[in-house]
Amino acid sequence: MSKSSNKKVFALGGIVVILVIGLFAWNHFRQAKEPSRELVIATNPVFRNILQVTAKEAEKEGVKVKLVEFSDWNTPNITLNHGDIDANFFQHQPFLTNAIKEGGYKIKPFAAGAASRVGLYSKKYTSLDALPNKARVAIPNDPVNGGRALLLLNEAKLIQLKDPTNHLSTLRDITSNPKDLQFIEMEGPQTARAVDDVDLAFTYPHYLKLSKTIEPEKALYLNKEEDKRYAILFVVRDDFKDPDGQLKKFVDIYQHSPVVKDALAKEIGPTLWYPGW
User: Fold this and answer.
1) Are 174 and 160 in contact (CB under 8 A)?
2) Global pTM value
3) pLDDT digit of tens for each residue in the chain (277 aa)?
4) What is the annotated signal peptide range for this record (predicted)?
5) 263 in any annotated domain
């Protein structure tokens, strides 16, 4: 090959290198200038305010979040599984495990949020001992939260379960019911409102805050141990990618921002929530 040909090859190679470097630099510059994508997170009314506070804090760091609200405990997983949202935030691990089993969803935990204590509440009686025979007791009708209610009733010594460690215990697993309690099963979020009508209700502090039926601190009985299994989770699809780290940033703000911690204390109760991470 002649010297002139070699010069042309080298010159062409140099142009290609410059073009590649230029394209890389332009792409990097374009990505830096482009606004970050908007995260879409589904939740329900009891966690809305906390996530709104988190979203406002996240926006200060360039993380844009759109919250979508559902009132039930099924649609958020269906919507996530269809890929219409990036994540949801409303369920703990036992509920998620059962939902995946029953619905065949391709979803998984991304990170943990706060957990809260659960309690037994009454407007008619001031102690568990005062409950009459055949007292009406409201519990959730889904397998996981219904099981959690029975575990708490067992812990409070109102009933005895065949296996006090089985979080999927059902009414059929009750081996002793000295007061002949009458159980009324209903949608989980409704148990907070049922406090007005039944003798005793198992429910959650944040649902009581929303329904304004009774102060969450006025439980006749609260669970004793902090069980992180019941921390509310940020859940995503199995194939979820977070290339720009937006969801990771949002979760970090949720977990560590003093402003969010103040919101958790306000929405749940300063002594009724604890970190699930």
Assistant:
1) yes
2) 0.82
3) 554 554 444 444 444 444 334 444 444 434 444 445 899 999 999 999 999 999 999 999 999 999 999 999 999 999 999 999 999 999 999 999 999 999 999 999 999 999 999 999 999 999 999 999 999 999 999 999 999 999 999 999 999 999 999 999 999 999 999 999 999 999 999 999 999 999 999 999 999 999 999 999 999 999 998 999 999 999 999 999 998 999 999 999 999 999 999 999 999 999 999 999 9
4) none
5) no
- Contact between 265 and 275 under an 8 Å Cβ cutoff? The reply is no
Cβ–Cβ < 8 Å for 138, 160: no
Residue 19 is part of which domain span? 1-34
Residue 270 belongs to some domain of the structure = no
Give the CATH number, domain containing residue 149. 3.40.190.10
Residues in CB range of 19: below 8 A, 6 or more apart: none
